[in-house]
């Protein structure tokens, strides 16, 4: 095969299409897939995480900054919040369920949602005046930036309504998977008197926490670089004087949410007062069966098996991947399947709600009052569910 269009010739096994990355002149593969070139002598799998590759000449420098590396800081305890260490878990989540496995659970998903989840799912979009004012004053913002701010406005509004803003230095807001920390920035704008601890496994440029500290130099805000499954909050000096710990996340991916909840509960069992959390998970298709905390709830609906979970995880992706369109195309060529009875996008939405309800029920079982809330409409984001958990009095 010749890369006559300037694109990588590697065929992605799962997507069954070519990689779309550009290649250098005369090359068949992009940098990431150069390892598959029979003439390759320069690129090797990363020894820390074989899911990515690195140039031999840059290996020493890469090992010092690889996002998959485990640091030596005192607050790192490898795999302490995981069942199977996800960073060491190098195989990708590629198990795609068979059509029979999907067919086995679609009615169970539909029924579980109608008989249990639907009546407990709260639809409530909030706003916060600071974020809304910024949106009004900046009409030129693009759609992508605006939709994130709409989500942030609702999250901060829910925090305010539930008295979960850190209003004094002894109360710490812990953001899991902070990324560029735009959420933490707006929470700190609403509650500048509190303390803030941010955590993310990767580095980021143009971080909003730098902007927050520039605007308010006296703000108490610190960032840790660490994968959530390794974080021991009890050993973080920043929290030694904290009387209460609130937690928040926005679009915390896959099993990271489960590891994050374990991190908070492990800290609570060791003397850190984990009081409440507002969690917005995402990317349910990246969840792992071994790590998922809500398996007892799934068992009540005959969904607690590796095969059923793989199908449930796969169905959840229908809420975001245009499955209804593919279903329409199938009808046009005369194919008829379970998709005619259960609209895929709606089925995916229900699967996501079931997965969040399972997490909420587990938190309820360990002493927290929980609510699953649709905090923005699906047109803003199909990843539109949050779990609100408050310590029972």
From TrEMBL:
Biological process (GO), any one: tRNA methylation
E.C. no: 2.1.1.225
PROSITE patterns xrefs: ZF_CHHC_U11_48K
GO molecular function: tRNA 2'-O-methyltransferase activity; zinc ion binding
Pfam families: TRM13, zf-TRM13_CCCH, zf-U11-48K
Function text: tRNA methylase which 2'-O-methylates cytidine(4) in tRNA(Pro) and tRNA(Gly)(GCC), and adenosine(4) in tRNA(His).
Protein name per its UniProtKB record: tRNA:m(4)X modification enzyme TRM13
Organism annotation: Caenorhabditis auriculariae
């Amino acid at each position: 095969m010749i890369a006559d269009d300037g694109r990588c010739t590697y065929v992605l096994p799962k997507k069954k299409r070519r990689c779309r990355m550009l290649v250098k002149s005369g090359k068949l593969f992009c940098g990431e897939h150069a390892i598959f070139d029979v003439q390759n002598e320069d690129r090797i799998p990363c020894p820390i995480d074989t899911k990515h590759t690195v140039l031999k000449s840059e290996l020493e420098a890469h090992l010092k900054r690889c996002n998959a590396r485990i640091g030596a800081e005192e607050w790192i305890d490898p795999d302490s919040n995981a069942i199977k260490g996800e960073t060491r878990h190098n195989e990708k989540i590629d198990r795609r369920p068979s059509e029979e496995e999907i067919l086995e659970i679609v009615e169970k998903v539909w029924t579980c949602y109608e008989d249990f989840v639907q009546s407990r799912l709260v639809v409530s979009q909030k706003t916060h005046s600071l974020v809304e004012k910024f949106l009004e004053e900046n009409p030129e913002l693009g759609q992508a930036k605006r939709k994130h701010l709409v989500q942030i406005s609702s999250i901060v509004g829910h925090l305010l309504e539930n008295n979960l803003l850190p209003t004094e230095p002894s109360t710490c807001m812990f953001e899991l998977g902070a990324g560029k920390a735009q959420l933490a920035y707006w929470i700190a704008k609403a509650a500048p008197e509190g303390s803030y601890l941010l955590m993310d496994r990767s580095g980021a440029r143009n971080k909003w926490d730098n902007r927050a500290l520039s605007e308010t130099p006296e703000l108490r805000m610190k960032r840790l670089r660490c994968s959530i499954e390794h974080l021991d909050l009890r050993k973080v000096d920043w929290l030694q004087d904290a009387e209460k710990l609130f937690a928040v996340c926005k679009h915390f991916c896959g099993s990271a949410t489960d590891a994050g909840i374990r991190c908070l509960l492990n800290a609570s069992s060791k003397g850190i007062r984990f009081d409440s959390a507002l969690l917005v998970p995402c990317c349910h298709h990246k969840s792992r069966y071994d790590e998922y905390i809500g398996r007892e709830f799934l068992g009540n609906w005959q969904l607690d098996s590796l095969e059923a979970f793989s199908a449930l995880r796969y169905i959840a992706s229908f809420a975001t991947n245009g499955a209804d369109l593919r279903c329409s195309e199938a009808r046009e060529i005369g194919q008829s399947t379970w998709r005619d009875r259960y609209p895929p996008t709606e089925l995916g939405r229900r699967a996501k709600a079931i997965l969040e309800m399972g997490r909420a029920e587990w938190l309820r079982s360990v002493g927290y009052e929980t609510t699953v809330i649709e905090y923005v409409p699906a047109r803003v984001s199909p990843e539109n569910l949050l779990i609100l958990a408050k310590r029972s009095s």
